[in-house]
């Protein structure tokens, strides 16, 4: 075999991938804990790539490729959600053997999840402080916070199509809701924008399902104890469920 021939193992860089699980304890469940979180980060990498491409296509009024990308994101999100079912096989006793070895690490510090929030429009500069020790990541997140998010470019498209979208807008906006209502009341006329709206609703819906799965898994395993890294645990996760990304796409359902 030629030294440069690509094999399955080389193509996927499996030696490095499968040696990236560094347990800090003898607890048998730590491998599960590590793999679930590493897998989630891999799915997030794909999701961010697809959302970035979809955002560019929406900005260019080239919606068909964006729809394919957003459909793929929804499937990847489903895989992430199902990961909670596997992690939930850990009992409180199982987790108690792992927790002392986690130190101050917390999913709250996930750079890619913070990037996902920013791409979807939940821009909180306070999260930059979590990456003060990682300047390259901090710079990337700061740059993303300054970019137009996927909802911004979607509303820009509505404005370009003639809808009354204010140039300076808050969230929620009555004018934005009225524009979506016009689209939903005549989907045959505005079919591609109607489909865009539903793709965005799918995106938020799956994020909220993921958040809820996180909440219930944490509740099942540690109850109402504080989370690692000093987070509030279940109360914090419950509060996040009330935060929406595309508020007018939810409120318009009541207005119709």
Task: Give me a quick take on this structure.
The chain has helices at 8-11, 14-18, 30-59, 63-87, 92-98, 111-120, 135-146, 150-160, 174-185, 191-222, 234-240, 247-255.
SSE layout and pairing:
Elements: H1 8-11, H2 14-18, H3 30-59, H4 63-87, H5 92-98, H6 111-120, H7 135-146, H8 150-160, H9 174-185, H10 191-222, H11 234-240, H12 247-255
Helix pairs in contact: 3-4, 3-6, 3-8, 4-10, 6-7, 9-12, 10-11
Descriptive notes:
It is built from 12 helices and no strands. It is an all-alpha fold and 256 residues long. The chain starts with 7 loop residues before the first helix and ends with a helix. The relative contact order is 0.12.
**Radius of gyration over all CA atoms, rounded:** 21 Å
Q: Quick one: how many beta strands? A: 0
Largest sheet: none
Tell me what portion of residues adopts beta-strand conformation: under 5%
- The number of helices is 12
Instruction: Give the low-confidence spans.
Output: none
Distance N to C terminus? 65 Å
The 3D shape can be described as globular
Order of helices and strands: HHHHHHHHHHHH
Overall mean pLDDT = 93
- What level of helicity do the residues show? 55-70%
Q: What structural class do you assign from the helix and strand content?
A: mainly alpha
Characteristics:
256 residues; mainly alpha
């Amino acid at each position: 075999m030629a030294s440069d021939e690509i094999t399955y193992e080389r193509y996927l860089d499996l030696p490095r991938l499968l040696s990236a699980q560094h347990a800090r304890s003898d607890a048998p469940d730590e491998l599960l804990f590590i793999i679930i979180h590493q897998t989630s980060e891999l799915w997030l990498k794909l999701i961010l790539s697809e959302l970035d491409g979809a955002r560019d296509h929406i900005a260019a009024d080239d919606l068909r490729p964006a729809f394919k990308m957003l459909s793929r994101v929804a499937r990847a999100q489903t895989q992430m959600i199902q990961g909670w079912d596997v992690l939930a096989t850990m009992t409180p006793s199982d987790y108690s053997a792992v927790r002392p070895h986690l130190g101050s690490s917390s999913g709250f510090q996930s750079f890619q999840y913070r990037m996902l929030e920013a791409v979807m429009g939940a821009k909180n500069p306070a999260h930059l402080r979590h990456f003060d020790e990682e300047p390259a990541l901090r710079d990337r997140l700061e740059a993303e916070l300054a970019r137009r998010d996927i909802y911004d470019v979607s509303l820009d498209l509505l404005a370009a199509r003639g809808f009354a979208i204010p140039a300076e807008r808050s969230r929620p906006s009555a004018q934005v809701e009225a524009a979506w209502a016009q689209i939903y009341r005549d989907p045959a006329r505005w079919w591609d924008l109607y489909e865009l709206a539903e793709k965005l609703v799918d995106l938020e819906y799956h994020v909220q399902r993921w958040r809820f799965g996180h909440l219930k898994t944490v509740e099942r395993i540690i109850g109402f104890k504080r989370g690692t890294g000093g987070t509030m645990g279940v109360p914090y996760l419950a509060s996040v469920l009330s935060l929406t990304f595309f508020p007018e796409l939810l409120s318009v359902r009541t207005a119709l």
